[in-house]
Specification:
single chain; 2 helices
């Protein structure tokens, strides 16, 4: 014989529905505009970037993120990298371009190991 179905009382509506629209009520998001290799024109868009860093720098960054991941800072590795990139780009603008935004590039930067660069050992574990 099967177990009887137990119904539990709830408060009815979710009180957070007032603050957050349910997925069924949200209008579908428009597809992202094609950037055709150009920089995104709207803020908030993100993309994945893959590059090599010295192991000790990455370990220091990870240690800082773990130590500061809780309130009130709630730091993530992504946010740390974004803050560092923004600060360095601003410094480069002030130093090399009179504080102005650099002109939009016509091509992507070269990728890969520079010719003559020493090969680094890859880390096999975190």
């Amino acid at each position: 014989m099967g177990r009887p179905k137990i119904t539990r009382r709830t408060i009815g509506e979710n009180p957070l529905d007032v603050l957050i629209a349910s997925p069924a009520k949200k209008a579908p998001a428009p597809p992202p505009p094609s950037t055709n290799g150009k920089a995104p024109t709207t803020s908030g868009e993100t993309t994945r970037a893959t590059f090599y860093l010295p192991i000790e720098l990455l370990e220091d960054a990870r240690n800082a993120v773990v130590a500061l991941s809780g309130p009130p800072v709630r730091l993530t590795l992504t946010k740390l990298a974004e803050n560092a990139f923004r600060a360095e780009v601003e410094r480069l603008k002030r130093k090399h371009n009179d504080g102005k935004t650099f002109p939009q590039r016509d091509e992507d930067p070269r990728v890969g190991r520079p010719i003559g660069a020493k090969t680094r050992k890859r880390a096999t574990s975190r």
